[in-house]
Amino acid sequence: MLLRYFYDERLAQASYLVGCVKTGEAMVVDPERDIAPYLQLAAKEGLRITHVTETHIHADFVSGSRELAAATGATIYLSDMGDANWKYQYAHEPNTGRTSSSKCAINTVLVTEGDSWLVGNIKVDVLHTPGHTPEHISFMITDTAGANQPMGVFTGDFLFVGDVGRPDLLEAAAGLMGTAEPGAHRQFQTVQRFKTLPDYLQIWPAHGAGSACGKALGAIPSTTLGYEKLFNPAFQIDEEEAFVKWLLAGQPEAPRYFAQMKKVNKEGPALLKELPKPQALDRAAIDHLVTKGAFVADLRGRTDYAAANIPGTISIPERKDFSTFVGWFIDYAKPFYFVTPSATAVDELLMALRSIGIDNVAGYALPETVSGKTDKLPEWSAQELATRLSQNGIVVIDVRNKSEYLEEHIRGARHIHLGALPKYLDQIPHDHTVITNCASGYRSQIAASLLRSRGFTNVVTLRDGKELWSQAVETVSGVN
Questions:
Q1: How far apart are the first and last CA of the chain?
Q2: What residue numbers bound the domain in which 321 lies?
Q3: Potential cystine with 96: which of 38, 49, 106, 109 (Cβ 3.0-4.6 Å)?
């Protein structure tokens, strides 16, 4: 048996290839949309990808199952468990190629609790593990060539290192009200079931630290069930109501794009070859788009944007998780445009955007288009804020997560989460100086540029992070 781990740092998402060396067959679990790494590894190891599967309808990235099956001819194994509202729609289509331009018929098999199949000598057993979502399943793996007992479990978004999956995404992201608490109860029952399984089982989760699918995920790639029984808080709570209360408390804000991911992965994502290719745009085109209200993101570095930017563009500096911030604001029904840090970065940025379903990327502009009439983004240091904060008319908006704000914030600062900022524009004064702040200056720059694009002229970003402003400015803990 061969097992390989893949990790996308942009999305804190893990996927796996498990193969039988003897027969040359392999299965990929929870693949991402960029399938090149799986194809390259399979070719290197002399394997054929014959099976593709996923643990549930993902909310935080576009599944690569259809993409991989179309490229390899593999069969997709999907959950047929859970609520009828969240069944895989494309699994029931006679030809899941999706459009007339996709001629490949993709084979799908719907599976339920107790089903099993072989990938060469590797046995895969399906366990229904609801809680994070109603249809969630896990895969118990046995290498029958050398053992008659399972080695480990691909737990998807049920069990992480140090945490379990949040049960509130259907409610918080997809708008299915009344689903969070029942999901928490189901998660409790799933945890109780796993308490009865052998401690030696290896646990291979679908996410690591930084994912919004839980609140305290560990940073190491795998664990054992015995270790989780000892140290994972979810396994320490024996009373169901106490567990539900603990699990629902303190979950991070659900990114707005999660609702779109649920829809896309349920219906079946488009194949990458079907997507339009973005066009290179000049300055006149960008100015016209901004005038028409198009969303144009400037992905150049923070200092580059602050020094000179095209008026009306929004600063979302490229870093490993930049696409998740684009996802807070994107309108999936409209074309998306961006200013690239360099010509060589376009393909990589495009894949990162498409990983969260931003498929209608209509155009991009090279950094040299940022010339002619430009804006500067006003910035203050922590010391400048400390000096001016006592002046009348300064409004501080803290755009961090609520948990960060409650831990410590600038006295008098108002909390508006970055992703919710567009909803509260009418509550932000135009006749006062508004300064945005966060933990590092990254989110506050996004917020300031967003406000300026919406007509706020007296906006400043606090460029210094928490380690500086917490020393220079009076802060408080808890609700002000």
A1: 57
A2: 275-369
A3: 106
Cβ-based burial of 44 (10 A; exposed 0-12, middle 13-18, buried ≥19): exposed
User: Is 374 inside a domain boundary?
Assistant: no
pLDDT tens digits, residue range 195-207?
999 999 999 999 9
Of 399, 393, 375, 415, nearest in space to 462 by CA: 399
**Residue 94: per-residue pLDDT:** 53
> pTM value?
0.92
Pair (65, 212) in one structural domain: yes
What DSSP string runs through 308-361? SB-TT-EE---STTHHHHHHHH--TTS-EEEE-S-GGGHHHHHHHHHTTT---E
Helices (H) and strands (E) counted in the chain, each on its own, are: 15, 26
CATH number of the domain bearing residue 308 = 3.40.250.10
Distance CA 1, CA 317 (A): 42
Q: Among the residues of 24-96, which ranges form H helices?
A: 36-45, 65-72
Q: Which two tokens stand for residue 282?
A: 């000049």
Q: What is the pLDDT of residues 415-429, one digit of tens each?
A: 999 999 999 999 999
Instruction: Determine the Cα–Cα distance for residues 41 and 86; give it in Å rounded to an integer.
Output: 33
DSSP state of 381: -
Q: What does residue 17 show for φ and ψ, rounded to 5 degrees? A: -120, 125
Residue 177 and residue 236 in one domain: yes
> For residues 14 and 221, is the Cβ–Cβ distance under 8 A?
yes
H helices of 46-179, where?
65-72, 169-172
